[in-house]
Amino acid sequence: VQLQASGGGLVQPGGSLRLSCAASGRIDRHNVMSWYRRAPGKPREFVANIVESDNTHYTESVKGRFTISRDNAKNMVYLQMNSLKPEDTAVYYCKGFHSGIDYWGQGTLVTVSS
Q1: Do residues 110 and 81 touch, judged by C-beta distance below 8 A?
Q2: Which tens digit of pLDDT belongs to each residue from 40-79?
Q3: pLDDT at 25 over 90
Q4: CA dist list (Å): 98 to 28, 34, 74, 102, 113
């Protein structure tokens, strides 16, 4: 299983970014896909996950601003991030769960700053 995250960058507060995660190998539509993030000096935290196509969960701080989705035909998972805040600055990681094992992508840096 390989996961490749992309889409990070520098954005002003209030702006938007869409992160993408390309999954290959044994990950398919039945697997839970998640986004986590690690802000500078803080532990990694859960951001959102998606089960099948429409069962989603979010950490409280991103509800109403972030949307996780997936394209099962392309084996892609997305994180649409709107109304970004400086506290959203972090390295974002995608994670796939398959047969009891967590698989992690390499991370993509999101910086929210004016």
Answers
A1: yes
A2: 999 999 999 998 878 999 999 999 999 999 998 888 999 9
A3: no
A4: 9, 12, 18, 7, 36
In this structure, which long-range contacts are made by residues 82-88, counting pairs with CB atoms below 8 Å and at least 24 apart in sequence?
82/16, 83/14, 83/16, 84/11, 84/13, 84/14, 84/15, 84/16, 84/17, 84/110, 84/112, 85/13, 85/112, 86/13, 86/112, 86/113, 87/39, 87/61, 87/112, 88/37, 88/62, 88/112
The first and second tokens of residue 62, run together, are 């991103």
The CA distance from 64 to 10, in Å, is 21
Locate tokens 């209030």: which residue?
Answer: 14
